[in-house]
Amino acid sequence: MFNNIIKNISKSIVGNEDRIKLTLAAIISEGSILIEDNPGSGKTTFAKSITLNLGLSFKRVQFTSDLLPSDILGFNIYKNEKLEFQKGPIFTNIVLADELNRGSPKSQSAFLEAMEEKSVSIDGETYRLPEPFFVIATQNPMDSSGTSSLPDSQLDRFMISYSLSDLNEIEKINMLKNGYDLLSIKSEPINWEDLQIKKKKVKVSDEIYKYVIEIEETIKSLDQNIHVSARCLKQIIDLAKGWAVVHGKDYVTHQEIKDIIPYIFRHRIKFLNQEDKLNYINEEILSKISIQK
Q: What residue ranges of the chain are covered by domains with CATH 3.40.50.300?
């Protein structure tokens, strides 16, 4: 199943197969995704292609400085002598928060409850979101004009973050030849319940749990401003299970943890340039932990 999905997505998204697999693993793990890259790099097209090929419903919210929380969540109106709730675009399977860091802090925070509780509260009433529900957010680099930093409380709710891969000459030629023909995508809806059953069957040994704790302890010993929350530790295990499912495995090894860790911590490390983070994670964290054979 995943091979066909990856093949279909790769028709419109060139040279990012590893990012496609990572996104699928995060979705299986019910985690939200943050894509950071320069304007015009294909972030929105990538997100649309993923959602269309999964056969899930999705809506797009373009963040601007004047966007209000009610434009995202919805609002009550007085109709037929009673209040009626008008659902906002967040009531979908996957909501694309486009250029999230161009919005005001108030509109950015509108996602907090939805990303954690899978629900929204309006005027004292709580409304459940559809299942499954995920956020795929894109943001421009922080030195771009008109951007504001996402608060730590929101960044911690994203399971992974990444930038799209730079294309080589052949990949650029293929991109120019093929274009972004999203209208031609014909997909069959994924069986969400079946995927969740597969994820639950993935085995995680005590050695893997201990390895994750060792990673946390190693980070603390660095005396750097890297916050590893309980939510983050849980995301590591959940994403590793999703990564195993995408690769047709029913167990998690140390290698799965190593594969996903850079994308888990990428948006949690703020004192380095993006291009330096991968080496830092490998050299200062993972390489210092011995794995018992």
A: 1-166
Please state, as a whole number, how many other Cβ atoms lie within 10 Å of the Cβ of residue 241. 25
> How many beta carbons lie within 10 A of that of residue 216, not counting itself?
17
C-beta neighbour count of 100 within 10 angstroms: 26
Residue 29: closest CA among 256, 248, 241:
241
CATH entry 1.10.8.80 includes domain 191-293: yes
pLDDT in tens, 239-281: 999 999 999 999 999 999 999 999 999 999 888 887 788 889 9
Listed residue (80, 100, 81) closest to 90, CA to CA: 100
Buried b (16+ CB within 10 A) or exposed e, 73-95: bbbeeeeeeeeeeeebbbbbbbb
237-246: pLDDT as tens digits: 999 999 999 9
Using CA atoms, how far apart are residues 275 and 113, in angstroms rounded to an integer? 31
| Element (DSSP H or E) covering residue 100 | none
Nearest to 243 by CA among 228, 229, 253: 253
Residue 281 CB contacts under 8 Å (≥ 6 apart), including other chains? 261, 262, 265, 269
Q: Can you tell me the distance from the alpha carbon of 187 to that of 8, in angstroms, rounded to the nearest whole number? A: 9
Model-level pTM greater than 0.85? yes
| Domain 1-166: which CATH number of 3.40.190.10, 3.40.50.300, 3.40.630.30, 2.40.50.140 | 3.40.50.300
Q: Which alpha helices (H) appear in the chain, and where do they start and end? A: 2-12, 17-28, 43-54, 69-73, 105-108, 112-117, 152-155, 169-178, 192-201, 206-221, 230-246, 254-265, 274-284
